[in-house]
Amino acid sequence: MKKYLAFFRLRFTMGLQYRAAALGGLVCQFFWGAMYILSMKAFYDTDPAAFPMTFPAAASYIWLQQALLTLVSMGGIDNEFFNVIQNGNVAYELCRPVDVYGMWFTRSAATRVANALLRCVPVLAVAALLPAPYGMAAPPDLPAFLLFLVSLTLALGVVTAIGMIVYMITFHTITPRGVRLIAVGICDFFSGNIVPLPFFPEGFRQFSELLPFSSTANVPIRIYTGDLAGREMVVLMLMQVFWIVALVGVGKLLEWKELKTVVVQGG
Q: What is the pLDDT of residues 28-55, one digit of tens each?
């Protein structure tokens, strides 16, 4: 366990160094969040009764989504592992006296946390100062906030495990770009990063919530806004735990299969 904590600490410290990239991302996220909220307001003003959330909750959803973009979305996937697989440097990884899956999982999670910390505080600070109903509102109560933190940790585990499966699939491809684009598109759509899941038709929403992608951004953000509570919240949080176990199991199986037959050419 100590070696994996060391990997996490080193990668976390490394991730905090990229402040210029974080600043560029902040500017993009502020503008994107503002445009997204204004478009939501237009829909809300057209027919408030058809809007599945209160508008302040929708605004908080969008700001929180932007603040945690690199933490719980596939957009935060680490390109380093793609490069290691593509250029053959995975051979050096195999020489380390540690499990490759555990090492990559830890480093990937640390990168996500570091990138999110650089961005989330400024986004949330500015959003909290905006006038209602366009700004970031507080959670309904303290228990909801604590459950949000627990769910957010579980969401990090789920999205990191999905990323690990993508890395393992890359062993079968010449370039990782196609796999990554497909994974990002599917995960962003079914996680509510493009359209919040409450806006989906009822049957399609229920189907989407059964998928692992729903256990990333959708669950913690809806808990924070108060849109998710009671029995439904408990069920979806248990789904998060289930998907972590299932996806890690699939990832470990793929790791065993791929690294057993991997061939590195060159010298």
A: 778 888 888 998 898 888 888 888 888 9
How far apart are alpha carbons 244 and 156 in whole angstroms? 9
CA atoms within 13 A on the CB side of 11: 21
Print the domain residue range for 232.
Answer: 2-260
Q: Are 228 and 144 in contact (CB under 8 A)?
A: no
Q: Is residue 267 part of a domain?
A: no
List pLDDT tens digits, range 95-132.
777 888 888 899 889 888 888 887 788 888 888 888 88
Q: Where are the alpha helices (DSSP H) in the chain?
A: 2-15, 19-46, 55-67, 69-72, 79-87, 90-95, 100-129, 142-169, 177-190, 202-210, 218-225, 230-261
Is residue 50 in a domain? yes
* CA angle (160, 72, 162) in 5-degree steps: 30
| pTM for this entry | 0.88
